[in-house]
Specification:
14 strands, 449 residues, elongated, alpha/beta, five-stranded parallel beta sheet
Length: 449
C-alpha cells in the first residue's frame, strides 16, 4: 500500500510495541519498532521516506526530545505523539512547534491507523513534489518544454526531433488544449530555422476581408486605407516557421492561394505583380479530421493531401495521466512566479484526484486549475478536488482508474503483446491477467486486426 515508505515507531513497553506494530502492519504499513528514542534517531535522516510515531514518556530522551531531533533533521517529516492524559497540554504545544498530531491514551487502533494513513499520504506527496521539482530543475532542451514521462509524450518528443531539421511541412492533429502551438514552437526551436521568426496565425480569428492582406501583405494603395506597404505573415516568416492554427476554419477561397504558395514557395503582395521567393516552413494545426472535411467539400482535398505528409498526433491528457503530477507542479511554479505568490503545498490525495479526472480541456484546463489554486480561488483543496473529480472517489477507486489507464496505454503501445506489456509495467504475467480480469480489459481489442 505504501511501498518504500515506513513508520519509525518508538514505544518502551514491549507488549504495546508489539500489538501496535502488528496492527499497523496489518493495515499495510512497514513498521520499524524501537524501544528507545536513542535507537530510533540514526534511522531518521533528511528526506526520510516515512513518518515517526512516538510515545511521549520514554527514557533519557522522551518524545519531545525526539520531536526536536526530527524538526532539526527534516521539519517536513510528520511526527505523531502518543500521550497520556496529563501530557495533552504539552502535546498541543508540540503541535504548535511542528508535530503533526497527537493521540491520547487509551486510543482505538482505528484512530491510530487513520491518523497514520493521513500523515503517510502527506509524506508521500511531499517527497513526490520534491522529486518533481528536482526533475523540473534538471530538464534541458525539449524535455523542459514538452514535459512528461508517458510513452505517448516520449514518442512525440522523438518525432519532433526527427522532423525538426527537415524541410517537411507538418500537420498537427489534437484536441483543444493539447499544446499544438507548443509543439510547433519545439519544431521551430530545434531546427536550423530557430534564428528566424516563428509566426503564429489563428485562422479562425481573422476576418475574411483581412485574411489575404494578413497572410500575403499588400502594397501602398492596393485598396482603400492601404496607405503604406504591409509585410504579410508568410513574408515575415521568411527563413523561419509559419503556424496556421485552426486551419480547418480558413476560407475555401484562400485555401487555393495558400496551396499555390506552398507549392511554389513564392507569394505576391496585394496590389503587386512581383513574385517574391520565400523560404518558410508551414506547420498547420487542427482539431478536426481534415480528410472527412475534404470528403464533405468543406476543406480542399488538394491542400489536405499537400499537408498530409508529416503528421504528428498529440495525445489528450486522459491518455497520459502519469504526466499530470509533473505538469501540475510545473504550472503551479509558473503561476506562483507570474503572480508573485507562494506555490501552495499540495495536501492529502489531491494529486490522485487530479489524475482521476478526464480533463476535456486537456493541458490548458489543468494549467487553469493551477492558476486558480495559486490565486486562492478554489476555496481550499478539498473543494478544488471536488471541482475536478467526476465523483467523490475513494483512494482505491482513484488508483484503480490510474492503474487501468496505464495498462491500456501499454497494451495500445505494444499492440496487445502481453510479455512486452509486462516488461513495460514491471509485473508478471499472472499479475497482468489478474488485473485485466479485474478491470474488464479485453486484450484482443488491442491486437492488430
Amino acid at each position: 500500500m505504501f511501498d518504500g515508505f515506513k513508520i519509525v515507531f518508538v514505544e518502551d513497553d514491549e507488549s504495546v510495541r508489539s500489538s501496535v506494530g502488528e496492527t499497523l502492519e496489518l493495515a499495510g504499513f512497514e513498521v520499524h519498532p524501537f524501544e528507545s528514542a536513542e535507537r530510533a534517531v540514526p534511522h531518521i535522516t533528511p528526506g526520510f521516506a516515512g513518518i515517526v510515531i512516538s510515545d511521549v514518556r520514554l527514557g533519557r530522551m522522551d518524545g519531545f526530545g525526539l520531536m526536536r531531533h526530527v524538526l532539526d533533521t527534516d521539519p517536513t517529516i510528520p511526527l505523531i505523539l502518543v500521550t497520556g492524559h496529563g501530557d495533552v497540554t504539552m502535546a498541543v504545544e508540540a503541535m504548535r512547534q511542528g508535530a503533526y498530531d497527537f493521540i491520547e491514551k487509551p486510543f482505538a487502533m482505528e484512530r491510530l491507523v487513520t491518523v497514520a494513513t493521513r500523515a503517510m499520504e502527506k509524506r508521500i506527496l511531499k517527497i513526490e513534489v520534491d522529486t518533481l521539482r528536482r526533475q523540473l530543475r534538471n530538464q534541458r532542451g525539449i524535455d523542459a518544454t514538452l514535459l512528461g514521462i508517458s510513452p505517448a509524450i516520449t514518442l512525440l518528443r522523438r518525432q519532433i526531433l526527427n522532423l525538426a531539421d527537415t524541410s517537411a511541412d507538418v500537420l498537427l492533429i489534437g484536441e483543444t488544449g493539447t499544446g499544438k502551438e507548443v509543439v510547433a514552437r519545439c519544431l521551430h526551436d530545434h531546427s536550423l530555422r530557430r534564428k528566424a521568426n516563428f509566426v503564429a496565425i489563428n485562422c479562425g480569428g481573422l476576418p475574411e476581408n483581412l485574411f489575404e492582406s494578413e497572410i500575403f501583405g499588400h502594397e501602398a494603395g492596393a485598396f482603400t486605407n492601404a496607405g503604406k506597404r504591409r509585410i504579410g505573415k508568410i513574408e515575415h516568416a521568411d527563413g523561419g516557421t509559419l503556424l496556421l492554427d485552426e486551419i480547418e476554419s480558413m476560407p475555401m477561397g484562400f485555401q487555393v492561394k495558400l496551396l499555390r504558395a506552398l507549392q511554389e514557395r513564392k507569394i505576391e503582395r496585394l496590389g503587386s505583380n512581383e513574385q517574391l521567393p520565400i523560404d518558410f516552413r508551414i506547420v498547420a494545426a487542427t482539431k478536426c479530421d481534415l480528410q472527412e472535411l475534404s470528403a464533405q467539400q468543406k476543406f480542399r482535398a488538394d491542400l489536405y493531401y499537400r499537408l498530409n505528409v508529416a503528421v504528428l498526433e498529440l495525445p489528450p491528457l486522459r491518455e497520459r495521466r502519469e504526466d499530470i503530477p509533473i505538469l501540475f507542479e510545473h504550472f503551479l511554479l509558473e503561476a506562483a512566479l507570474r503572480y508573485g505568490r507562494e506555490a501552495p503545498a499540495l495536501q492529502g490525495p489531491y494529486m490522485r484526484k487530479l489524475m482521476a479526472n478526464d480533463w476535456p480541456g486537456n493541458v490548458r484546463e489543468l494549467r487553469n486549475v493551477a492558476d486558480r489554486m495559486v490565486l486562492g480561488l478554489l476555496g481550499g483543496q478539498d473543494q478544488a478536488a471536488q471541482a475536478v473529480t467526476p465523483a467523490n472517489l475513494t483512494l482505491t477507486q482513484q488508483m484503480d482508474i490510474v492503474e487501468k489507464t496505464l495498462i491500456e496505454q501499454a497494451l495500445k503501445e505494444h499492440n496487445g503483446r502481453p510479455q512486452r506489456v509486462c516488461d513495460t509495467l514491471g509485473i508478471g504475467k499472472k499479475t497482468l491477467y489478474d488485473k485485466l480480469h479485474r478491470h474488464g480489459i479485453v486484450i484482443d481489442d488491442y491486437r492488430p486486426a
